[in-house]
Amino acid sequence: VFDIVPGPETGSFKVKTRFLGVEMEEFLLKYQDLLQLQYEGVAVMKMFDKAKINVNLLIFLLNKKFFKK
User: For this UniProt entry, which residues form the secretion signal (predicted)?
Assistant: First the structure.
């Protein structure tokens, strides 16, 4: 399970992973880095060396959840 919460800075997010209720890892994700990956044409990024995340869908999710007016 991925929990995404706003980070300490504007445009950053904390991504926490849980497996069977146990917190595994935490990662600081910057929105600008995602946009750079999208610009470079990267479709999939690795997160925590275990999960592959679709960059476009992650940007869509963040826009829908955090930047919706």
Answer: none
